[in-house]
Amino acid sequence: MADQRIVVLAGPGAPTNILVHHLRSHFQLVGVIMESPQSKWRLLQRRAARIGWMKIAGQVLFLFAIVPILKWTSGRRREEILRSYGLNENELPNNGIIHVASVNHDATVAALHLLRPDVVVVSGTRVIRQHVLSAVDVPFINIHAGITPRYRGIHGLYWALMNDDAANAGVTVHLVDKGIDTGGIIAQAQVEHTAADNFTTYPLLQLARGLELLMSALRDKANGKLIGQHREMDSRLWHHPTLRQYLNGRWSKGVK
Question: What CA–CA distance (Å, rounded) separates 47 from 60?
Answer without folding.
Answer: 12
